[in-house]
Amino acid sequence: DAMVIQNPRYQVTQFGKPVTLSCSQTLNHNVMYWYQQKSSQAPKLLFHYYDKDFNNEADTPDNFQSRRPNTSFCFLDIRSPGLGDAAMYLCATSTGAERGYTFGSGTRLTVV
Amino acid sequence: QKEVEQNSGPLSVPEGAIASLNCTYSDRGSQSFFWYRQYSGKSPELIMFIYSNGDKEDGRFTAQLNKASQYVSLLIRDSQPSDSATYLCAPSTGSYIPTFGRGTSLIVHP
After folding, report:
1. How many angstroms from the chain centroid is the CA of residue A80?
2. How far is CA B70 from CA A63, A97, B2, B32, in A?
3. Residue B1 contacts A, CB cutoff 8 Å
4. pLDDT in tens, B19-44
5. Residue A77 near residue A18 (C-beta atoms within 8 A)
6. Distance CA B20, CA A6 (A)
7. Is it the case that residue B69 has pLDDT exceeding 70?
């Protein structure tokens, strides 16, 4: 089945230790997004790629970086995780058209 | 600044009743309106989208849009315990990047 896959489902990292979250898709969607969602809050857009064009939200901390080596894969790098970065990280894809998103299952990040 | 307002709830309804979830938005440029369902600890799932004023029905779900009042709602008929989740309203402009509300928690009790 065509889908969006995020790995790992759960990630525990140490304060300040770099961590990478991954997302892959078999939908061949040209747009990929990374969202951060904290408990009882709305998903917050961090950045998105329209094909290879990278778009960073103005309030995304510099601590967060992203890479999209090809259509299928997108990575979220957190260079120095802080306790405030503990959250669910959601990857989503779309065709950029009026059909909404397909989300992956999410990665729950814990910082200790 | 774009704002999407939803009552956080919880909204509690008995099984078989109609659940009415409401959402207001501030961006008059919003063109597409999405409703996502999110079960606890899971990722959001698209359940409805609507572009035109009026009603759109899909099974037990009806989305209602009033652009003049900047208001969109989701009705769930014959509510089931499996409908218990958080429902996120997400209007978007022509860029098709939605602004999410924080969601309304719905509890359907037997």
Report:
1. 16
2. 36, 22, 12, 12
3. no
4. 999 999 998 888 889 999 999 999 99
5. yes
6. 33
7. yes
d(CA A49, CA B82): 34
A79 with A71: CB under 8 angstroms?
A: no
* A100 to B97: CB separation less than 8 angstroms, yes or no: no
Smallest CA–CA distance, residue B6 to chain A, in Å, is 10
Tell me whether B40 touches chain A (CB under 8 Å): no
Q: In sequence order, which residues have a C-beta less than 8 Å from that of residue A51 and are 6 or more positions away?
A: A30, A31, A71
Contact by Cβ (8 Å): A98, B43: no
Map tokens 């405030």 to a residue. A84
Cβ atoms of A90 and A34 within 8 Å: the answer is yes
Residues of chain A with pLDDT under 50: none
CB-CB contact of B22 with B106 (8 Å): no
Interface test with A, best of B36, B43, B105 (most A CBs within 10 A): B43
Between CA B87 and CA B7 the distance in angstroms is 10
For residue B68, count CB atoms less than 10 angstroms from its CB and return exposed for 0-12, middle for 13-18, buried for 19 or more. exposed
Q: Which one, of A24, A43, A44, lies nearest residue A93 by Cα?
A: A24
And the tokens for A46? 């961090």
3-state secondary structure of A103: strand
Chain centre to alpha carbon of residue B104: 8
